[in-house]
């Protein structure tokens, strides 16, 4: 599978706060990539940068060969009108205009694109509502008159109506109950399987991702710490932070489970102050950190990447300590 989205050395800075630092990742055509990491790790900022809604200070984002970071003015507007990349917001209530009917919301992108006539747009809206499992009779309702799960699907319908090639979904299921969650996750898998849509799912819930994603990218402190095939990453994580995430997610299957307490530093661990700005961002929380970690680790590997000076050694160290 070829890479359709390539993020290379991305830096995003808000008010001198470096939110993404030298971040590189690849999304392959027709896959679901899960992006995981704790609050503030930069997941939303990454998606916003892809759709041109975050201040990119350095680096490049390429979609199918087009350098999105170089687009400005009319070229950027023309690119957006194609609808090829759609970002589905985290918070449906804030993302939906309370005064607009569901039909108008779902038609928004199609109306802006200005390619189809009214009848064709109406047909597309109905098809999109059905595709996301919504009754087309909801078309005349306002966002305040439907449930949270339905609002989440309206956001998806608005994106799907544009036949996107890449869908970026920000916490698409975090506000949903179990049955709505499963429906939305199945829908994303269907879009991949039947329509060949490439999907990036941002989530802090590993178990939701484990069921549908092909690969996973793990962010910590605005940096990529690990990226690879999801089953292998979850069962044999190479980065201590990924290991901690999997240890804290009981539903995720692991071959050699490591207790979470073994992945947290002992109280006598080197104080955070010993690691300066150029250090591995995880070092202050890492039980395996050594003086080598005062420099940020390079990313190694190809299909399965990790950024840790001790990626090859910490497991053995853990096993030796346990004996
Ligand atoms: N517009 C902004 N102005 C200033 N700081 C921002 C802005 N957007 C994000 N940040 C900061 O960037 C950091 C990363 O935020 P981001 O929303 O990308 O993280 P996240 O991993 O998506 O978190 P969450 O899981 O809570 O959504 C945070 O420290 C946040 O405060």
TrEMBL record:
What's an example GO BP annotation here?
peptide transport
Tagged with keyword Transport: yes
Q: Where is the signal peptide?
A: none
Q: Which UniProt keywords apply?
A: ATP-binding, Nucleotide-binding, Transport
User: Cross-referenced SUPFAM superfamilies, in alphabetical order?
Assistant: P-loop containing nucleoside triphosphate hydrolases
Q: Where is the ABC transporter domain?
A: 5-246
GO MF terms here are: ATP binding; ATP hydrolysis activity
The uppermost taxa in this organism's lineage are: Bacteria, Bacillati, Actinomycetota, Actinomycetes, Micromonosporales
Q: Per the record's keyword annotation, is Transport included, yes or no?
A: yes
- Per the similarity annotation, which family is this? Belongs to the ABC transporter superfamily.
What is the name listed in the Swiss-Prot or TrEMBL entry for this protein?
Answer: ABC transporter ATP-binding protein
Fetch the CDD domains from UniProt.
ABC_NikE_OppD_transporters
């Amino acid at each position: 599978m070829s890479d359709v989205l390539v993020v290379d050395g991305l830096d995003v800075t808000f008010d001198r706060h470096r939110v993404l630092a030298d971040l590189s990742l690849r999304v392959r055509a027709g896959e679901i990539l899960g992006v995981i990491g704790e609050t503030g790790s930069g997941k939303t900022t990454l998606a916003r940068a892809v759709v041109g809604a975050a201040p990119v200070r350095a680096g490049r984002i390429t979609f199918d060969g087009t350098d999105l970071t170089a687009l400005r003015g009319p070229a950027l507007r023309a690119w957006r009108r194609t609808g090829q990349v759609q970002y589905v917001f985290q918070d449906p209530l804030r993302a939906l205009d309370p005064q607009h009917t569901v039909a108008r919301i779902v038609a928004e992108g199609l109306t802006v694109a200005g390619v189809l006539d009214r009848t064709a747009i109406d047909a597309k809206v109905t098809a999109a509502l059905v595709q996301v499992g919504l009754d087309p009779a909801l078309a005349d309702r306002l966002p305040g008159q439907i449930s949270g799960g339905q609002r989440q699907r309206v956001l998806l319908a608005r994106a799907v109506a544009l036949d996107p090639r890449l869908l970026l979904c920000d916490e698409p299921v975090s506000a949903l109950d179990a049955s709505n969650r499963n429906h939305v996750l199945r829908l994303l898998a269907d879009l991949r399987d039947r329509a060949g849509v490439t999907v990036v799912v941002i989530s802090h819930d590993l178990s939701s991702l484990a069921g549908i994603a092909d690969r996973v990218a793990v962010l910590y402190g605005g940096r990529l710490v690990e990226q690879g095939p999801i089953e292998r990453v979850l069962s044999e994580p190479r980065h201590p932070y990924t290991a901690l995430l999997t240890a804290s997610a009981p539903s995720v299957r692991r071959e050699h489970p490591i207790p979470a307490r073994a992945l947290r530093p002992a109280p006598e661990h080197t104080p955070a102050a010993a690691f300066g700005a150029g250090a591995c961002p995880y070092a202050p929380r890492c039980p395996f950190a050594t003086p080598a970690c005062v420099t940020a680790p390079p990313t190694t590997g190809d299909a399965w990447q990790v950024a840790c000076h001790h990626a090859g050694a910490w497991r053995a160290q853990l096993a030796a300590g346990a004996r």
